[in-house]
Amino acid sequence: MIQHLQPEEVFSIFHEITRVPRPSKHEEQIGAWLIRFAQNHGLQYVQDEAGNVIMRRPATAGYEDRPGVILQAHMDMVCEKNNDTEHDFMTQGIDTYVDGDLIKARGTTLGGDDGIGMAMALAALTSATLPHPALEGLFTVDEETGLTGAFRLGDGLLQGKRLINLDSEDDGQIFIGCAGGIDTLAKLAYTPEALPEGQWFAAQVRVSGLMGGHSGDDINKGRANANKLLVRFLFAVSKQTDLRIARISGGNLRNAIAREAEAVVLVPFAWKEQLRILFNCFTAEVESEFKAVEKDMCLTLESTATPQQVLPKLVSERLLLSLYACPHGVYAMSKDMPGLVETSTNLASVKMKEGYIEINTSQRSSVESQKHNLKNMVECALRLSGAEVTHGDGYPGWKPDVKSPLLEVVRQAYVELTGAEPEVKAIHAGLECGLFLEKYPWLDMVSIGPQMSGVHSPSEQLSISSTRKTWEWLKKTLEKL
To answer: What is the CATH number of the domain that holds 301?
Structure first.
């Protein structure tokens, strides 16, 4: 039972959080839970129009004249599950279990991103022994699908001068900058048509078992994108014979690398055996390419019932051309910080709706002009299919400040605690800090967090020992502040 792990003051709260449904854009239940938490612990609180919850606790004795500190985390979680898992994220909590030093979930995302950040902030706000300046807990909504809470954070709500974001996922690292991002949405209209006369072989092609992961933090790890693999095979078939697409789908969330994709396609019946030969060759090819990374990759081709309707041939051709041309992955590495991805794009999802095919992508960059350059590149590729393309509002990056006074205190706290120097880095994933600066430009900010991996996928896992160390690090930091 994770609520009895040490530090119990953190894991008992985290356990409660995992029992509350909290999909992005549906944070009503977790927001109500936070308000009850504040009431039960005698904390001042306010909820703004966006649904963000702010809690306050006065400074302890001797810390009254020191600048206040804001501990920030987001309420929502990415809701991903395996195809064979039955789970309703709107009504059910997460089924967690302990595996050695790791906390995992059965068949779904864990929600450690950012449930553990919430838990540490709440543990600090309610600690009976921790000395600290005036504390605020800022818990935002909809970080994962639009940064809505940070965008709509009310003016004049925050009183602290320093902010510690608890949404990082790497042990012993302090983040002082992040990429900005923008989403691109394409809608390709179609009118289904009857399957042409003749003998056809219908097959379901599936790509599954990929690692997936965070479209920012994991984009440079060489993982396969299920959408790109599926389209690559279908395009190869289309170059050799008549290919008709009845159904195609892949991926789910704009900030997750697609783990699964499938299509129902038809080829002339005389081409049945050649299709299987081509598929077997393709499977061997991509398994060889990704053997060092994708250990559980699974590609299948199975016969299926013949559908009565298909996409118009021209729509199918343009769709495959456009998706094949659409970039995915790292576009440029940082010229200022070695090892940091500067610019990337994620071909996140392809979904067939009634009357149109919806394609979602997301672009990230720490260079604003390159973010828009890549956005335009993606738009051009998708418009070549005849799709209507629109872009989201986007969000700004967070420019690193290596001379930050808060950074120095957090660094010293880590050295005193561990005897080692922490890494100071920027992150390619998006954090809410850039948006906070737009309304509160005086904020001095850093981001820390315990070790997690597989976030935004059902393989998400949280290190227990790293959580324990990060909690001690946060306590020492607040004592020094």
So the answer is: 3.30.70.360
pLDDT 10s digits, 124-140: 999 999 999 999 999 99
pLDDT for 393 equals 86
**Torsion sign across C-alpha atoms 217, 218, 221, 226:** negative
Provide the CATH number for the domain around residue 107: 3.40.630.10
Query: 335 falls in which pLDDT band (50, 70, 90)?
Result: confident
State the helix-helix crossing angle for 28-40 and 8-18, rounded to 10 degrees: 140
- The 10s digit of each residue's pLDDT in 186-209 is 999 999 999 999 999 999 999 999
Q: Do 266 and 372 share a structural domain? A: yes
Domain that holds residue 79: 2-179+397-480
Residues tagged active-site: 76, 143
Q: End of a domain among 335, 363, 391?
A: 391
pTM greater than 0.85 (yes/no): no
Q: Which of residues 391, 413, 435 is at a domain's end?
A: 391
Tell whether 256 and 402 lie within a shared domain: no
344 and 437 fall within a common domain: no
Kindly state whether residues 301 and 444 are assigned to the same domain.
no
* Cα 355 from Cα 191, distance rounded (Å): 6
* DSSP bridge pairs for 250: 261, 350
Residue 81 pLDDT grade (very low, low, confident, very high; cuts 50, 70, 90): very high
User: What's the pLDDT score for residue 73?
Assistant: 98
Count structural domains, the chain: 2
- For the residues 200-227, what does the mean pLDDT come to? 95
